[in-house]
Amino acid sequence: MKVLVTGAQGQLGRSLLATSPSHANIHAVDISECDLTDGDAISALVESVEPDLVINAAAYTAVDKAESEEEMAAAINAGAVKALVEAHPGKLVHVSTDFVFDGASSRPYRPEDDRAPISVYGRTKAEGEDHLRKDDLLVRTSWVYTAGGQNFVRTILRLMKEKPELKVVVDQIGAPTWAPGLARVIWGLVAKGAPGTFHHSDAGVASWYDFAVAIQEEALALGLLNREIPIHPIPSSDYPTPAARPAFSLLDCSKARDLLDDGYTHWRENLRKMLKEEQELG
């Protein structure tokens, strides 16, 4: 099976390559090999590779920057999906986000729930979803991180080394997702031939404050930090950002879990795995 993977140097892209099944012949590309804002370039890429499957792990993920760069965000998050669908008659696997929801739910969001994005990033990701066909595979996720990537965990670790104390938002609720675990779920859904929409995040619930507290505790235990600092919970109103964030973006992942017939790992256990990898990276 020949598989074209876009966004190959991103957190998920690298994890997809690392966890790919032995029978998959991977052709991985990143922005340096193909400009995803250029529909003709995408068409030429697909024509040259002739993949059996395309996994689109590329995205414009700078949530706040997207508010002032809507055209660029739309080109990558929506236009590239349209171009891939038009160029590739076979199955497309596309990865989306909890930000397509408004955060007003009182229960975890199901794959079939109505979307109501409240940011440019969320809107452009929703627009990308709309280009998919019924036999394509859509996987939504949240709060993705991995060792060596650009993410909340590594940012918090750096700040804990630099600052005497931290203030972290406590009223945005969701679940972290370790990228290698997400990649394995995607490959599992591909193996099942699954069409339609699925959700995946790690088990459990957290606020960004909870996540930061856990990062410090686990990093101290591993020796990645040599001192403990105070972490103060604050409301989102005390940390204004250009883009609005959903207050509650927990995803109901039962559909994927039932199909793959396995339990899924709590986010704190996966955080521990990631930090051990971070330690090995030095």
TrEMBL record:
The annotated pathway is: Carbohydrate biosynthesis; dTDP-L-rhamnose biosynthesis
Q: Does the keyword Oxidoreductase apply?
A: yes
Q: Which reaction does it catalyse?
A: dTDP-beta-L-rhamnose + NADP(+) = dTDP-4-dehydro-beta-L-rhamnose + NADPH + H(+)
The answer to whether the entry has keyword Oxidoreductase is yes
Q: Which cofactor does it need?
A: Mg(2+)
Copy out the cofactor comment: Binds 1 Mg(2+) ion per monomer.
Q: RmlD-like substrate binding domain spans which residues?
A: 1-278
Its EC number is 1.1.1.133
Keyword entries, A-Z: NADP, Oxidoreductase
Record function comment: Catalyzes the reduction of dTDP-6-deoxy-L-lyxo-4-hexulose to yield dTDP-L-rhamnose.
Q: Which family does it belong to?
A: Belongs to the dTDP-4-dehydrorhamnose reductase family.
Q: What is this protein called?
A: dTDP-4-dehydrorhamnose reductase
Q: Which organism is it from?
A: Erythrobacter rubeus
Gene symbol? rfbD
